[in-house]
Write a structure and sequence with these properties.
The complex is a heterodimer.
Chain A lengths: L1 H16 L2 H8 L6 H5 L1 H13 L3 H20 L9 H18 L2 H7 L28 H13 L7 H4 L8 H13 L21 H5 L9 H20 L6 E6 L23 H8 L18 E4 L12 E3 L4 E6 L2 E6 L5 E6 L5 E6 L5 E6 L3 E6 L4 E7 L6 E7 L2 E6 L4 E5 L6 E5 L6 E6 L5 E6 L4 E5 L4 E6 L6 E6 L6 E6 L5 E6 L5 E6 L4 E10 L5 E9 L6 E5 L5 E5 L7 E6 L5 E6 L3 E6 L17 H7 L9 H25 L5
Antiparallel strand pairs in A: 2-29, 3-4, 4-5, 5-6, 7-8, 8-9, 9-10, 11-12, 12-13, 13-14, 15-16, 16-17, 17-18, 19-20, 20-21, 21-22, 23-24, 24-25, 25-26, 27-28, 28-29
Chain B lengths: L1 H27 L8 E6 L2 E6 L2 H19 L3 E10 L5 E11 L7 H8 L3 H17 L13 E10 L8 E3 L9 E9 L3 E9 L2
Antiparallel strand pairs in B: 1-2, 3-4, 3-5, 4-8, 7-8
Helix pairs in contact in B: 1-2, 1-4
């Protein structure tokens, strides 16, 4: 007995180390391997356990064992390492007692089955909830089980067990019944044929080969039999095309979904200068811990905006550098002076609704896009209409963007029209690549590129020199309204998608690569770049997004880490449709469907950095901007003809910039 | 003792190679959009590497496990299947055989002399292999409908390897009636890595 204990201990140790799996497959193998569980030897061993000892304790153990088996089945993990160690230990110890008592348990059981062999407790193999498909053998034992189990849905001890021995040919009626039952089962053949349909279940459990080696004390016949069995199994496996020594494993989690974009205009040859990478390599900037920004969650000021059109696709607010806020409410356009709080009604169209508003770069003129497809330019000093530009499309103009004297208009039908306000035939180009309403338009500050976002879920970045889309980004899954060029990094564009998309993507518009993404959790109706400063004076590049359901929040993200650093939840009662940053870059004016215009302070004032003025761009760039109309003498003549105009233009821009808002 | 260290280094080299290889394949075959990749210098080559965080971490997770298996000598093949998303049909199957070289500890001198390739030598071999893989795009059939394909990683392991829950047994996923192109191989101190691609003809 003492010796026995030692051996069990040894076995326990082993089981803790490497053999855990083996044990697992030995006992809790309800669904792992067909071959291993259905081996009659083992069933006999299991059965004989009860037969050998009729102690009460063992009966309890059996319950435990059953429990563990049932648990295992109900969890139905593909491969679980959880072991019911207690029951196993019991089993092992029992195995060894068997060995002690009988010398060779399997042999004795097979040759002379005791009566107790059939007094097995309930095995919920096929009567249980989830029956593994292991009843595909010709064993009469199983046929009988099948018969017994199906009517009552559970195995029960019955005298009919004693009827059958190895042959298993019962009466005709029973056979007929079995045939009927087998009709219901997927496999009707009398051989074990592995099913190829599910990949996780077919495999040879290599452990099952080794487990059947009898103990060294067993008789030579016993060994021979075991070896034969192994060879047989190998042959079967080979015949089924399974390799014994190898497993082919598949990584189950699916790879991330490719966001597919194709560009129509290739500029791949350009080398990329990765700003953020460069900085990291230098390591010149001492890193600070990321701190949550303190943002005042209550608005500075709330204004009532009755009649505001809560339409995601429209851009109804614009804030000029002179601190004038233009706001379109239904058919009226109001100019609100943020310094003096004066309100002026610029125009009331009575019948035609306004769909977009934007200040020009000279801060005097404001462009108004209307539902009838016309774009009007108003002088805010004289309060007079300067010019009406017809789009001849008859659909509303939802987005506008100025570049000096050019104004790009995005229409509901998907066209982007470039209008030159100086010339009579104002329409200089029409780009109709978009398939749905263009709801976001933004010129880059140097004028070389125009970003457009539309309801066809694409972002297009246009080369203004070639009038072609350099890049088409199809990553967004919803309309793209929010577009924002980074003021302090060249060629960085942030785009935000609508209700279904919820993402902000950052792009390098020169090489066309995506620089990063943020999932905001709500639609992105606007994006504005800003900044805060660390105690050591380094800048945190940040971007503020406004959203809709569920939080109607104003959220500030750090661009470099993509972390959310500040948030104003429930900034509005309904979704925020438009937001504009104040000229000094600190306050965000937001307007939503609740017809409130609110002002939140989200950023720190800029340091050492004036607002990049588009009108200060170098002359050669302007030349390039002109849509080239090759005359008979080439472009030269055109350009020389332009010189005068440009001079005038520069004068006016210098004048305007001297008047414009400067940051303290 | 020496071999243990060498094994680690060798395995690392191979894992790193796999990383660049998978990235290159995904880029070359257009499984992921071009813009998700940036150029990096590696093995004296300009290679494309993804900067999409999700994909990066996915590849990393796969390779971390493969690395573990390789350290234990349990993994002998890595397969990247490019398959049709809609039909589940395998269109390309890139297989990398990993052969563990048996070390003859009895002849250490000979080992040092010719059997163990130098770092430069390994780099050269890897470079040649990656060049070949890159060049294979010319003869591989064009994968029409960009964005329609996804990929799948298979690892052939020893029967006794411990398997994390993310991995499950799989079929071979071979391409029936496909053509196979054998690439060059490279060998490190302890491993020999071969590569081949089979594709639908």
């Amino acid at each position: 007995m003492f010796e026995l204990n030692e051996r069990t201990n040894l076995k326990k140790l082993n089981s803790k180390n490497s053999d855990t799996k083996k044990l697992n497959s030995n006992i809790n193998n309800g669904q792992r391997s067909v071959l291993s569980i259905t081996s009659p030897t083992k069933l006999n061993i299991i059965a004989s356990l009860n037969g050998g000892d009729t102690d009460k304790s063992h009966a309890i153990d059996w319950k435990k064992l059953n429990k563990s088996r049932v648990n295992k089945q109900s969890i139905s993990l593909p491969r679980s390492k959880s072991l019911n160690l207690t029951s196993q230990k019991n089993l092992i110890s029992k195995l060894y007692t068997q060995n002690k008592n009988n010398g060779s348990p399997t042999n004795s059981n097979q040759s002379s089955p005791k009566k107790s062999l059939f007094e097995r407790p309930k095995l919920n193999i096929n009567g249980g909830v989830s029956a593994p498909q292991l009843l595909k053998r010709n064993s009469s034992f199983f046929k009988d089980e099948l018969k017994m189990s199906t009517p009552g849905l559970s195995l029960s001890r019955s005298p009919s067990f004693s009827n059958n021995n190895t042959s298993g040919t019962g009466s005709n009626s029973i056979n007929k019944y079995i045939d009927d039952v087998e009709d219901l089962l997927p496999v009707r053949t009398d051989r074990f044929i592995p099913l190829y349909q599910s990949n996780s279940q077919i495999k040879i459990d290599p452990e099952s080969l080794h487990e059947e080696l009898p103990p060294p004390t067993a008789s030579p016949t016993e060994h021979l039999r075991a070896q034969t069995k192994i060879v047989f199994k190998e042959n079967v496996a080979q015949a089924c095309g399974l390799k014994m020594k190898q497993r082919i494993l598949e990584y189950l989690p699916p790879p991330p979904v490719a966001s597919f974009d194709r560009q129509s205009y290739s500029m791949k040859k350009r080398t990329a200068y990765n700003f953020s990478q460069q900085q990291q390599q230098d390591g010149s900037i001492p890193r600070e811990f990321i701190k949550l920004r303190k943002i005042d969650t209550s608005p500075d000021r709330i204004l009532d905006a009755p009649g505001f059109r809560d339409d995601f696709y429209l851009n109804l607010m614009s804030w000029s550098s002179k601190n004038l806020l233009a706001l379109a409410l239904d058919t009226c356009l109001y100019i609100w002076n943020a310094s003096t709080s004066e309100v002026n009604l610029l125009v009331d169209y009575k019948t035609i609704k306004i769909s977009s508003v934007i200040w020009s770069d000279d801060e005097i003129h404001v462009a108004v896009g209307k539902d009838d497809g016309n774009t009007e330019i108003w002088d805010t000093e004289s309060m007079k209409l300067v010019r009406t530009m017809k789009s001849n499309l008859g659909v509303r103009i939802a987005s506008l963007s100025w570049l000096d004297a050019l104004i790009a208009t995005g229409s509901r039908s998907g066209e982007i029209q470039i209008n030159d306000v100086r010339i009579k035939d104002h329409l200089v180009a029409t780009w109709d690549d978009h398939e749905a309403e263009v709801c976001g338009l933004s010129y880059k500050s140097d004028g070389l590129q125009l970003a457009s976002g539309a309801n066809d879920n694409t972002v297009r970045i246009w080369d203004t020199r070639t009038s072609q889309a350099m890049w088409v980004k199809r990553t967004h899954k919803a309309a793209v309204k929010a577009l924002s060029w980074c003021p302090y990094m060249n060629n960085v564009l942030a785009t935000g998608g609508g209700q279904l998309d919820k993402h902000i993507h950052f792009w390098n518009t020169m090489v066309g690569s995506k620089l990063g993404s943020i999932n905001t959790g709500s639609q992105v109706s606007s994006l504005n770049w800003g900044q805060s400063y660390n105690t050591n004076g380094t800048i945190n590049r940040e971007i503020v997004a406004t959203g809709g359901a569920p939080d109607n929040a104003v959220i500030v993200y750090n661009y470099d880490t993509k972390f959310k650093v500040g948030e104003i939840v429930k900034a509005h009662d309904t979704r925020i449709s438009c937001a504009q940053l104040s000229p000094d870059g600190t306050r965000l004016a937001t307007i939503g469907g609740d017809e409130n215009l609110k002002f939140y302070k989200v950023f720190e004032p800029r340091r050492r950095m004036g607002r990049a003025s588009k009108s200060s761009l170098p002359i050669d760039n302007i030349n390039l901007l002109r849509p080239s109309i090759p005359g008979p003498n080439g472009n030269l003549m055109n350009e020389s003809g332009l010189e005068n105009e440009l001079d005038r233009n520069n004068d006016s821009s210098a004048r305007s910039s001297s008047q414009s808002y400067f940051i303290r | 003792m020496v071999s243990a260290i060498a094994l680690k280094g060798s395995t690392r080299t191979i894992t790193e190679f796999f990383e660049y290889c998978i990235n290159s394949i995904l880029y070359q075959r257009g499984v992921y959009p071009e813009e998700d990749f940036t150029t990096v210098r590696k093995y004296d080559l300009t290679l494309m590497k993804t900067h999409d965080d999700e994909l990066k971490s996915y590849i990393r997770k796969v390779l971390a496990q493969v690395h573990k298996w390789m350290l234990g000598g349990k993994c002998n093949k890595l397969v990247i299947c490019i398959m049709d998303k809609d039909e589940g049909e395998i269109v390309e199957r890139w297989a990398f055989d990993i052969e563990r070289l048996e070390l003859n500890t009895t002849e250490p001198s000979e080992q040092a002399d010719d059997a163990t390739p130098s770092k430069e030598e390994i780099q050269k071999q890897i470079r040649a292999l990656i060049r070949q893989i890159t060049a294979s795009v010319t003869f591989l059939p064009e994968l029409t409908h960009m964005g329609r394909y996804t990929f799948n990683v298979l690892a052939y392991t020893d029967a006794y390897a411990t398997v994390p829950i993310e991995w499950a047994d799989s079929e071979v996923k071979e391409i029936k009636g496909g053509e196979t192109m054998q690439f060059k191989s490279f060998s490190t101190e302890n491993h020999k890595v071969g590569a081949e691609v089979s594709y639908k003809y």
